Structures are given as C-alpha cells and as structure tokens.
Structure of Palmitoyltransferase:
Amino acid sequence: MAFSEERQQSLDKRMNQIMAIILPLLEAAGLGYATYVLIYLVCIHYLINPAADTGLEPRRATGIALLVVYCVLLLLFCLAFLRLLQVISTNPGVVPRGNPSSEKHSASTKPFDRLDAYICDYQGFPIWCNKCHNWKPDRTHHSSQLGRCVRRMDHFCPYAGGIISQTTHKFFVQFLFYGFLYTGYVLIVIAVFFAERSRKMHSKPATWIVLIALAALFFLFTFGMFMTTFYQLAINRTTVEEMGKHDVHNIALLGRSPASSTTSSNQSNIVCEVQRSPSRSYIVLQTQPGDNPWDVHWKQNIQSIMGNRVIDWFNPLKISPCLNRNDSEGEFAWGIAVRNLMEEYGAGSAYGRSRRSHRRRKSRSVSIPS
Ligand SMILES: [Zn+2]
C-alpha cells in the first residue's frame, strides 16, 4: 500500500514536471498564434488595409486602436507571467531544511516560543516535518513536487511550472487577472469581426474559428480560476486547507489554564498544557470543525496577500504584506474563531496583552520615586 502510494506520488511528480515544460511552451505558441491572427489578419489585412477585391472600406482608426489595446493587454499579461516565473524560481517560499539528525522531541522550539499562539499537535508541539527535519510554521505544507516544506502552500501550478505559495500567490492572481482580460478581449474582437465578415463576405476562415475556440477555452479557464482564487483569498483558505476544511485545529495559546489563573472558564476543551520556560506556558485548545483560524474579515484577508491599497493589488513589484509581518501574536493574523477562544480563556494575545500592560505598570511604578 505504502509502496503503491509512493509510486503514485512519484508518477504524479513526474507528470507535473513534464506538464510544467509542455504547458508554458503551448502558452507561448498560443500567444504567437493569437497575435498573428488578431494583428496581421484582422487589424492589418481586414481593417487597416483590406484587399481591393473584398469591397471593404479601410478602417484605419479602428484597426490601430484595436491593435494598440491588444499590445497593451499582451504586454501586461506577459509581464505578470514573467514576474510569476521570476518569484517562483527565486523565492518560492520554502522553509529551510533542518539538520538530518534533528528529532522532534529534541529540536529547539525557540521560533515558536516568542508567539502568543501557534498551530500544534496534541502534545502542544509545533507541527513537525519528518522529511525536512524541521518545524512547520503555521499554514505550511510539505510539497512532494519540491521535496520541501512551503509556507502557506496553495497548489502546484503546471502552467507556471511551480508552487503557488505565500510569496507567489499575489503574482498568480495578477497572472489570472490579466489572463482573463487578454483572452476576453481577443474573444470579443475576433467574434465581432468574424460575424461581420461572414455577413458581408460570406467567408468563415478556419484560422479565425480556431482562435475563437482557443480564446473561449482559455477565457473560461482563466476567469474561472481567477474567481475561485479570489474567493479563496477572501475567505483566507488555501487550496490545501480547503481539502481539510472540516478538520479541527489544535492551537497552543500563551497562558495558564483557568484553574490556575483568575479567569473562570470551561476547562473541558483544553487538550493539554505545556511549559516552555519558567515564564512561558501554553494551553492547547481545539477549534470547532469547519472553523478557519485565519479568517479575519474578507477585506483584511484579501489585503494580507494583495496589498493594503487597491493600487498595490496591481503593482507587480510590491510583495504581499503578510511577508513583512513581524508580530508576536502569530505567524498570521488570527481570525474571529481563535480570537473568541483567546478572550474566553484569557489566553493567547489576550494573555500577552495583560502581561505586557502589567510589566509596563510595574516598570512605571519602579521609575517613579515615592
Ligand atoms: Zn517538509
């Protein structure tokens, strides 16, 4: 069973690698074909400079305007694609490999101990990757394609030949956005002039029909993918997380169990308690099945990947704000479900806040002479 699973994974990996080479080549061929038909056959030979025997009047302004818009959309689409390829190849968002001799129970949890909350197992340990010999930061998934853990991994995209992750998701959305604008434009232009040509000249060239079919196919694909991806951004759930959306999550929250603190709460949901250092202990709680720990609000969810201002959403140079996050509250902003748990148990950032304000009060009372 394990052998056949391994074999299947290896076959899938090989297939994806082959597709990752073939699909970009097909895309390039498709762009070349669309450019030839739309610029040369439609704009130049049909609109700007029609043959005398066709009886058509030249329509230079229309031809040039359509040609310019086509070139702008093609350029934007190509730039988005190249930017996506560049980020995929230079910074796919992988987690460093640990020492091969590292073991879960002896590895240092230091990067997690500064956090108010993190996803953990039933013993309160962060999630461990046996293949990378390292801890998985929240939302990390081990990619069999790369053989590495990838932060906020979404999926392997054969069209771009790489992983869609925390670092590449924004550029993938831009690629899809300009993809559906470009293919939608090609589809409308070619369909309108094909209808006109068949009406006026009773001619239906096969080259035009092929482009209509290709443009319709890729428009439906890119538009569908764009809507799905944007929806997933709005609910802050990756494709990997979507597959386990009914799962419960164990979350380690900074704090002490209600029995030993002043907060009165129900202890039945506490999985365990972990003492990380004399001053830092965590209680482990479970979310309800279907709760998304990172669903803050649709607007903030989108902004965390696309950018804080709408203009940043279109900027191919700016990286996602979640990559600049350096907040001790957690690897990512916590959603309502987790915030409710924090308030209910006086733990996590609620506990961190009260400890921080207590420390501030203490330091002020020391500095003021009585
Ligand atoms: Zn891994």
